[in-house]
Amino acid sequence: GVGRGWEARAHPASLAAAASPPPPPPTRGVCGVAVSEPRAPDAGRMQVPPGNPLLLSLTLQELLARDAVQVELVPEKKGLFLKHVEYEVSSQRFKSCVYRRYNDFVVFHETLLHKFPYRMVPALPPKRMLGADREFIEARRRALKRFINLVARHPPFSEDGVLKLFLSFSGPDVQNKLRESAQRVGDEFMNCKLAARAKDFLPADIQTQFAMSRELIRNIYNSFHKLRDRAERMVSRAIDNAADLLIFGKELSALGSDTTPLPSWASLNSSTWGSLKQALKGLSVEFALLADKAAQQGKQEENDVVEKLNLFLDLLQSYKDLCERHEKGVLHRHQRALHTYSLMKRQVVSAAAQSREPESVEQLESRIVEQESVIQTMELRNYYSLYCLHQETQLVHAYLPLTSHILGAFVNSQVQGHKEMSKVWNDLQPKLRCLFVGPHGAPAPPRPPQDGPSAH
């Protein structure tokens, strides 16, 4: 079930979220096992807290403090045909360290969708294709790390036993353990004591709020997507700049190390060329240092800026996916059930008008009663779906201050990077003095370029 803290906190209503009325029929588990519909939750299940459980007050700091999960690549093990990638997953909260394969993440993801169909379940990165290179494997590791951290900090998920199982179970076959946990219980709707009363907590204008919220989050997503793309380009330029600086320094050093003898007609300038070569030879050290500083800055911005932007984009995408699941799943099934009910009612009227046998009319009426029960369950699921959407919207807004973290990291990286590179450039300047020779062979400082055309 979901932890009480998620439902007990009260806070001024954040933007709501939902779509029109509707909810799904019997749920099927991860392994296709049918799950019976609502039963009265027992006393040990989640209790109804005081106040309005729809509202929550969670700060970004509180969310981030729930857990910090690291996902690192384990050196590849060669199979008969393919190299298998394995990940070391360590949780600060559970003080655990386990090994997981990509398929373990897939089963965990399916389990979450089964247990929490009305919550934001982040998407997984794509499965590796044949010939995947190191760049793809590293990108997928980063994406898996973002996925598991969003899940580990999500209030309902973080209180569910399936998360602890994934992060701390070190026995064999974690996939079967996850599937078993999904089969034993139904989804969140079936285990939440508030499910049947969700409608009572929803604001009257829930549809309007949902539409406004969805539009706002769509706009935020589009803007953050552009920010992420530009940040990636800046990181790429920093890495390219580092490579160019390194090559530039090596070429200067190669020029200074050239041993080709001067022709006789150039002997008048041999002393000048000799001193120039000597100065050029030593410059590669400073340029290598400049390259290292540029590469460090690019790497830091990739971790502190691009990755945080990607984390927020993953969260926003999961919200968009949730809205679609609500409309195409719950809403669509409810409308279909109502249509079926309408057809049944017509059949009863038609059967009565044609004076059919009482038994056939009774069978139709019995089916109508069953269909009414299905519709009632779907309506309850629809309102619970809207209830969860409202809470998930508040959760998205709790993550919005991440923007200031990202901007702060970007500005600090630029300031620090420019400061460190400026120091190296300043240290390099005195070494250039011997490159500027005066009329009598004496060193002369470089003159700044003149504005406008030079006088003749």
From TrEMBL:
Q: Name one Pfam family in it.
A: PX
Molecular function terms from GO = phosphatidylinositol binding
Biological process terms from the Gene Ontology for this record are: early endosome to Golgi transport; intracellular protein transport
The cellular component terms of Gene Ontology attached to this UniProt record, alphabetical and capped at eight, are:
cytosol; early endosome membrane
The alphabetized UniProt keywords are: Endosome, Lipid-binding, Membrane, Protein transport, Transport
The cross-references to InterPro entries, in alphabetical order and at most eight, read: AH/BAR_dom_sf, PX_dom, PX_dom_sf, SNX8/Mvp1, SNX8/Mvp1_PX, Snx8_BAR_dom
Q: How does it sit in the membrane?
A: Peripheral membrane protein
Q: Which residues form the PX domain?
A: 65-173
State where the protein is found: Early endosome membrane
CDD domains assigned: BAR_SNX8 (cd07597), PX_SNX8_Mvp1p_like (cd06866)
Family, according to the entry, reads as follows: Belongs to the sorting nexin family.
Task: Explain the purpose of this protein.
Answer: May be involved in several stages of intracellular trafficking. May play a role in intracellular protein transport from early endosomes to the trans-Golgi network.
Any idea what this protein is called? Answer: Sorting nexin-8
Give the organism the record lists: Capra hircus
